[in-house]
Amino acid sequence: MDTPICDFVRQYEKKRGARLHMPGHKGITVTGPEAFDITEIAGADELYSAKGIIRESEDNAAALFGSSRTFYSAEGSSLCIRAMLYLALLSGREKGLAPKVLAARNVHKSFISAAALLDLDVDWLYGEEKSLLSCRLSPKEVQEALAGQQYAAVYITSPDYLGNLADIAGIAKVCHAAGVPLLVDNAHGAYLKFTDKEAVRRAFPGCSAPDLHPLTLGADMCCDSAHKTLPALTGAAYLHIGENAPALWEKEAENALALFGSTSPSYLILQSLDAVNALLADGYPDRINKTVRKTACFKERFAENGWVFAGNEPMKITLEAKKAGYTGLQLADALRKYGVDCEFAGPDFCVLMPSAETADEDWALLEKAFGELSVKGPLPEGRPGIPPVRRMMRIRDAVFAPHEELPAEECAGRIFADAYMGCPPAVPVAIAGELLDEEAAKAFRYYGIEKIKTVI
Fold this sequence. Notes:
The protein is of the alpha/beta class. The chain has 16 helices and 15 strands.
């Protein structure tokens, strides 16, 4: 597969011409990559009006992921999430629908900021466990919520930060039967398009899909953060439009991204996405599936030693630390002594994210750590539940209202003013416009949150 963006920039760098354009470093090395860091000069195309090398590269990505159209983001999936919601509201307006979506409660913070900016109303789904640490939706729960209601879209996060994959195929079927498009925050799952049937069977026994990507499973639109699981620079992401999505989305997607995005996209990140296309077209999926098998073997081996793992995502290692006698933070500290840095640690979980670039010596360090660390008696869980949710204000009104910051223990009886507050990676304790109570205050303290913004 060709790499039009990378090729253009390499040729431009070799010319050694006078760079009388941004950026100010003029290609002179300060940290390393400056010679390849350019702006939207002649021939370099424009990200939000792509007709040249960027469009060619995006079309390469679309062919790889099986989308009707793929758009690049140099500002991560956060930009894509805002664009997805904007597009859903546009197509909903065409149908005469109010700006309202049905969403799983474990949304990313960028979803809430977009809701505030777009004056979006949200009805929440909490999943079967009704927990602050997961939001496992069933198709039945979505179907019941859709009955007799009208929404511009259904929105879910899969995989979540703890490695839980939703039943996207089942949820998509329910959404389409109701005539509602399904949007998926797949930020952690760009690699899922390239998983093989063995990985599919492990995650969902009996599923006959060729891979685990949301588009394959029936989603109408999704975002992927390439930098999380593929060898791309931080900030590299895709916005994918499905084959059966409303025609308006493809037409308006660049405008949607431009509405929230910077007018100075990073060409280093665009080159990174371009280069990843070539890797994915030339054997890289084999490396992904080798890592998926390594991850499964690691979990199976150390589960026999008493370690407890959560989630069904193929390339993520989520440890239920308390069941082994540690808090997640204590386990992360213990691993760091072996030279292993985790992705996330909290009171309950420790999350590790290998990729196809994880070296054999790094796997050896990980195995050494878990071979030597002892599994102890379980700690008491003590996890707070979801506080009662009472919406007192619209999200937009609360986010833009005058506010003051209070100690967590004094926030009960006040309306939450921040966009989102909780323990990443799962369900927020509170969302803007909701009334806080003692249970919310207790949850804030459990997760080490000391200061809370409340409406004055």
